[in-house]
């Protein structure tokens, strides 16, 4: 009996995914658990494992690299050795299938082809930067800038044309297009020579004076990931009742503790302030479980101690991502620091998977490095709360005996879902966290 291979749902809001590539070939015998194909969805590319076993059969109308399919679309089958291959069922489940011209190997969606015709660009002259040679709208806009008769190429000193393998982040491509810069002429500072937004900004300072966008309107295409981030933010506002509380914590001992880690000459990563607070949050949440709860139709679901999975907001060139450190309450502080460093690196290199961004019960976001004191974080739905960390500043503080001393202060901003948690329990959580931050060593030793 033929077993259907379908497009799975990788995230709670995912409705469609981009097929990247088969990891098995037509006629291969596939075992249960084998990596079968790659799928892009919900900010990450993920290997999809086979849930059955059999011989892989891919119909002629099966997916092409870069094609977009609805969740649940049938893309192939696993069959017995002597079974015939069925026709692909429900072909209308496929949407926005990318058109492949076998003559010139151009891979582009109908919308991209329409844009190319509109702006007068030949797709054969466009350099593709999408997955598996897919031409994106940004590529067409960039080609328009390069090949326009009235456009003059910017002069980038001491930089030569890079190889055909040169790649750039979506942010870098958009900025380069708006500034009229050919990012292919830049030397990238990212992994593998990837051109980043900062490289384009640096190059723009070397442009001739007549190359400028000052005072001109710009149209920056909305990427799929930016649109997904926007959808998540809107969902958070529509599906929660957010309330934000702010307070300050004495950060003197927090800074002292980190300095002690910095003074040791070990091989382990040095915990950041956020790493230490992440560990403290996991311990405090044990006594304030509703801050880690989820609202369901007929119940509020609270996690167990081993499920204190804390998300951390990471700013990447592809947008805001929230990788999750699992079972923080069961980890040492050095373990938290090691996992945090690894996850941030994977997120910024575009290697984070959807699974690594799921299962969180609470999120921490940090704008202190930008000099921000307090702000209103947006709940990472369907979680119940998010904690914002501000800058650590030396401020005058009145002691109980009337003396005024200079003390390091950290401002905390807690946004919580008022459907799940009332104001007083949320305030008590902040009180407990303030106490933990004021005496982190004693608190962690007792954890």
What is the topological layout?
Blueprint: E1 3-6, E2 16-22, E3 29-30, E4 35-41, E5 44-49, E6 54-57, E7 68-70, E8 74-79, E9 99-101, E10 106-108, H1 110-119, E11 134-135, H2 137-147, H3 170-179, H4 197-204, H5 224-239, E12 242-250, H6 252-263, H7 273-285, E13 294-295, E14 300-301, E15 310-312, E16 314-316, E17 319-321, E18 324-325, H8 333-348, E19 362-366, E20 385-398, E21 404-417, H9 423-438, H10 440-445
Parallel strand pairs: 10-11, 15-19, 19-20
Antiparallel strand pairs: 1-8, 2-4, 2-7, 3-6, 4-5, 6-8, 9-10, 12-21, 13-14, 15-18, 16-17, 20-21
In short:
By secondary structure, the chain is α+β, with helices and mostly antiparallel strands. The protein folds into three domains: 3-97, RNA polymerase II/Efflux pump adaptor protein, barrel-sandwich hybrid domain (OB fold (Dihydrolipoamide Acetyltransferase, E2P)), CATH 2.40.50.100; 100-224, Dihydrolipoamide Transferase; 241-445, 2-Layer Sandwich (Chloramphenicol Acetyltransferase), CATH 3.30.559.10. It has helices at 110-119, 137-147, 170-179, 197-204, 224-239, 252-263, 273-285, 333-348, 423-438, 440-445; strands at 3-6, 16-22, 29-30, 35-41, 44-49, 54-57, 68-70, 74-79, 99-101, 106-108, 134-135, 242-250, 294-295, 300-301, 310-312, 314-316, 319-321, 324-325, 362-366, 385-398, 404-417.
Task: Provide key terms for this protein.
447 residues; alpha+beta; OB fold (Dihydrolipoamide Acetyltransferase, E2P); Dihydrolipoamide Transferase; Chloramphenicol Acetyltransferase; six-stranded mixed beta sheet; four-stranded antiparallel beta sheet; 10 helices; 26% helix
